[in-house]
Each structure stands twice: as structure tokens, then as C-alpha cells.
Design goal:
This protein has 514 residues and is of the alpha/beta class. It has 17 helices and 22 strands. It has helices spanning 63-69, 81-92, 119-126, 145-149, 177-186, 191-207, 222-231, 248-254, 296-309, 320-332, 334-337, 357-363, 373-384, 395-400, 418-427, 444-451, 453-458, and strands at 2-9, 17-24, 27-30, 44-46, 51-54, 56-61, 73-74, 101-106, 131-135, 140-143, 160-164, 170-176, 210-215, 238-244, 265-273, 313-317, 345-348, 366-369, 405-407, 476-479, 496-501, 504-508.
Length: 514
């Protein structure tokens, strides 16, 4: 196949653009004029001026949760407790008897008047239907009384928070480990429901130009669901899969290492949490506030143990203290992981002390960030981190400090939409307001690299993916406009015309009209 008469942005500095691309089987064989003789009677596809880029990678997505969230009560954008409760009341009308009513996306910090959610507010509209509503940041769970009753008082776990009222009774809000323990233990969802939701999620991701994901739902046992999709031929994404650090003993016993798997699904990295989040007010700061989930000493030992097992570590760190502790832990354990060539990463890096930006580059720790979080969180950050936001969501400072920056969505916290992420990184705004801390913006070229080249490197796939060069996999996206020449505020309006994985169209395809 030859794609011609378009603009090919290869993302390789040695040949940034081309007018055509030759593909044989699942691989790129070169630009037209050099390698087309290797193709037997090639199909010629007229791009009609469209733009081709490497397929996008979402470097931080909770894929199963995002997929299921498409079918749940959505509370994003609710401006008050009453509005959130009204959405739940509407959903209760069609709730299946005896089944959990699930939802996601609430953020009490955005409600007016300012108030925290309670089980009582839900009880008034839900009756005996058990309800579990995950916060937008994924670190708090809001339950009604029927939902709480499922645990029979089993709410407290190390690293968790159970909010209590003036009488010492649970308010219905669980945070951090308590939220996750409850959800994993009591909010049951059949495997078939997860798989069906993910099947649709893969199609939607392909429609948005995504050809690979770094998944964070390893703690849920998502690998078996990915395998089911692969076995039926419905897995049209390449997956770099996390495993929770608590499962290290099992992979050690089996002798599995990072990279185990096939071209579509591979074990990737160990996931650890240092602290909570901005939205739940549990991010760990240098002023002593927040929730410590993993101490610096514990983290160092996890990095060492993971390195000996052959796994890099991806650590969630939101607050400046959590980021410093993570950097310190990586530095202290460097003699274990660096000789093994492991590619370590900090997830989010939302608030970083000024003196710590350069340490990412000096230590070789990648910053796996989410461009959409900056403009999405701006109001909450201005309120909660007042006086500190010049070093919050500071993508420019990380890049200038020498860090490799990879971009993801953190879906379902934000939407899995690479083009929206590009706009957030470049424009530092997702609405009509001016850019928030525009000095921290990235260029469109840097944003594209963070969504293609850097994620492939983190997955040790830089010789096969992330660039459109001879010998690489033909994973690509066809866009109706060139993002490099597009005004920043129009980036989210670019359309995905087609997506290819390994030489096969998985969304759209020729003939193209433009």
C-alpha cells in the first residue's frame, strides 16, 4: 500500500515530513521513490491533502473504568450538590433491581454552595438501591446507606480515610485505600459487563486516533479482559500493562519480567501510590498536609525489589512532598535499576518544588503527565494551592529541566481524547478564558512528541513505534488538518478520518474525501 498526495509527519527529526508513505504488511518500508519497488502491485491510496501522524498513545488511562463509565451516571460539570443528586435520581428510575447503581465524575470543590456529599443526600432519592459514585479524581467514593451496608462496617484500611460526621458515623464518603478497597470488594461487576464495555471502548479509542495505551487498571485483573478481546480479534490497541506493586511476589514466583506478552498485550511496569489527589485534598505537600500512602523508605524498597524482578516503576505523585519523596527513592535505589536500563516514571507530577524540576532530567525519571488536567483543575488549584500554582502542572519547567514528558488523559478523570490533550498543553485553556499560567505551555511539536514518541520509548518500543520510519510498525492516524499549522484554540476541532494498526485500518479508511 502507498499513501500519497498528503502530508506525512514522521516525528523523526532526520526526515520530519514526506509526501507519501509505503507500507508492506504490518510495516513501513519507506517513502515513495525509494522502497515502493519492494511492493508487489501496491494499492495506491490518495490522501487528498490529509495529514498522517504516528498513532496516538494515551500514557495514563484507566481503560476498563473509562469504558464502563460511558454507561454510568456522569456527574462531571454538576455545579451543586442538588444538581448531582438530581442526576442520580433520574438514573435510579431505570436501575436494575438488586444491582449497584454506579457513577463517576463528581467534584465537591466545584459545587456552590460549598458542601461535602453525604449518604443522607443520596438516601432521599435512592431508597434501597445501593449507589457507589466515584469522584472525578478517582480517589473518593460517595455511597448511600444501602451501599455502605454492604461492607457491614468493614471500611477502614491502612492508607484510607473514612469521613465521619459529628456523631462519629460514616458520612458516606471514603477516600484513598478505603475507597478502592470498598469498590474492589463490594461493588461487583460481572466480567462479561467489563468486557462488553471495553469492546466498545476500544472502538471509541480507535475513532480518536489511539493505537496504544499505558493502562493503570492492573489491580482490577484487566489482563484477562484484554486477553478475551484479543482472542476474539477485538483488541485493536497495543497495551503496556501495569501491575500493582502488591502483586510483585506472584510475578517473581513465575519469573515474569517487563515486556512479557505479544505484539498487542505486554506486562509493562509496577504501579505505586505515594499520596492522594488535589480534588480529594489528600495530595501530600511539603507543609505536612495530605495523606501518605507510601513512605519514601517503603518506596525505595519497592523500586529495588521491582528492579530485581525486571520491572520499572510508575509512581503516582501529586503533591510537592510526594514528588520529592519519589525522586529521593529513585535516586537512592539507582544502583539497582540504572544498570538494568529500566525506564522509570512519575505519574502526574502536578505540584513540584522549584529545586526538584531539574532532578527529573538529572536522574532520568520521565514525567508521565496529563495536559488536560491543568486547565481542568485551574479553579480548584487556585483555591487549594493558592500562591503555589506557578509550579503546578508545570510542563514547560519539566521539559526545560531535561525531563522526558509523556502525555495521557487519566480517563475517566478526563476524557480519552488526544486532540483535546494537545490543545490543553499548547493553549493552557479548554474554555473561553485566557491561558492559565501560559508560561508553562508546550509547543505543538512537543505535545505531539509527548503523545507519540515518548510513550513508545517508555514501553521500550522506540524502534518500532512512535515514528513513521522504515522498519517500524504501520500504526498511524489520518487527520483532516495539520495540527502543526492549526491555531491552538482549534486543535480540539481537528477530525480523525482514519486509524491504522499494523497496516490494517481499524477505523475509517479509503477512499478519502476532503
Amino acid at each position: 500500500m502507498i499513501l500519497e498526495n498528503g502530508l506525512i509527519r514522521t516525528m523523526d527529526p532526520s526526515l520530519p515530513t514526506a509526501r507519501a508513505l509505503a507500507i508492506a504488511g504490518e510495516r513501513i518500508v519507506g517513502g515513495v521513490g525509494t522502497h515502493e519497488s519492494a511492493l508487489a502491485s501496491p494499492e495506491v491510496v490518495d490522501l487528498r491533502g490529509l495529514t498522517v501522524l504516528p498513532g496516538f498513545t494515551d500514557s495514563h488511562v484507566h481503560f476498563a473504568q473509562w469504558s464502563l463509565a460511558q454507561r454510568q451516571v456522569r456527574l462531571e460539570g454538576a455545579r451543586s450538590l442538588d444538581e448531582a443528586v438530581a442526576r442520580v435520581a433520574e438514573a435510579v428510575r431505570s436501575a436494575a433491581p438488586g444491582r449497584w447503581l454506579r457513577g463517576t465524575g463528581w467534584r465537591s470543590g466545584e459545587w456552590s454552595p460549598e458542601v461535602e456529599p453525604t449518604r443522607g443526600a443520596l438516601d432521599a432519592v435512592t431508597g434501597d438501591v445501593p449507589v457507589a459514585l466515584m469522584a472525578k479524581d478517582g480517589h473518593s467514593l460517595w455511597l448511600n446507606s444501602a451501599g455502605l451496608a454492604a461492607a457491614n462496617g468493614d471500611l477502614r484500611v491502612p492508607g484510607g480515610v473514612v469521613e465521619l460526621d459529628d456523631r462519629g458515623e460514616p458520612t458516606g464518603v471514603l477516600r484513598e485505600e478505603s475507597a478502592w478497597h470498598f469498590r474492589e470488594t463490594y461493588v461487583s461487576t460481572p466480567d462479561e459487563e467489563w468486557i462488553d464495555a471495553m469492546r466498545a471502548g476500544v472502538e471509541l479509542a480507535n475513532a480518536r486516533g489511539v493505537t496504544a495505551v499505558h493502562d493503570k487498571d492492573g489491580w482490577m485483573g484487566i489482563a484477562r479482559w484484554w486477553q478475551s478481546l484479543r482472542d476474539e480479534g477485538a483488541l485493536t490497541l497495543r497495551v503496556w500493562q501495569s501491575i500493582p506493586w502488591e502483586r510483585l511476589p506472584e510475578v517473581e514466583e513465575l519469573g515474569l519480567r517487563s515486556g512479557f506478552g505479544d505484539d498487542l498485550l505486554r506486562l509493562g511496569y509496577v504501579k505505586v501510590f505515594m499520596d492522594g489527589t488535589l480534588g480529594s485534598k489528600t495530595a501530600r505537600l511539603l507543609d505536612g498536609s495530605g495523606v501518605e500512602i507510601t513512605s519514601r523508605e517503603q518506596f525505595e524498597e519497592i523500586v529495588r525489589r521491582a528492579a530485581r524482578a525486571g520491572f520499572p516503576v510508575a509512581v503516582h505523585a501529586i503533591g510537592d512532598r510526594a514528588n520529592r519523596d519519589a525522586l529521593d527513592g529513585f535516586e537512592a535505589a539507582a544502583e539497582e535499576w540504572r544498570p538494568r536500563g529500566l525506564r522509570q516514571r512519575i505519574e502526574h507530577a502536578q505540584l513540584v518544588a522549584v529545586e526538584d524540576f531539574r532532578r527529573f532530567g538529572e536522574l532520568g525519571i520521565a514525567a508521565s503527565v496529563q495536559f488536560s488536567h491543568g486547565p481542568s483543575d485551574r479553579d480548584l488549584a487556585d483555591d487549594t494551592w493558592a500562591g503555589m500554582t506557578e509550579r503546578a502542572y508545570a510542563w514547560r519547567s519539566l521539559l526545560d529541566g531535561g525531563a522526558l514528558v509523556a502525555n495521557g488523559s487519566d480517563a475517566p478523570v478526563e476524557e480519552l481524547d488526544p486532540l483535546l490533550g494537545l490543545r490543553a498543553g499548547v493553549a493552557r485553556s479548554l474554555d473561553e478564558r485566557d491561558a492559565w499560567h501560559p508560561e508553562q505551555a508546550v509547543t505543538i511539536e512537543e505535545a505531539l512528541a509527548a503523545s507519540t514518541v515518548s510513550p513508545a520509548w517508555l514501553a521500550r518500543d522506540e524502534h518500532r513505534r512512535g515514528r513513521l520510519m522504515p522498519g517500524g510498525l504501520a500504526d498511524l492516524v489520518v487527520l483532516d488538518r495539520d495540527p502543526v499549522e492549526c491555531p491552538p484554540d482549534e486543535l480540539a476541532g481537528i477530525g480523525v478520518v482514519a486509524t491504522m494498526l499494523g497496516g490494517r485500518w481499524v477505523h475509517g479508511g479509503p477512499p478519502f474525501d476532503n
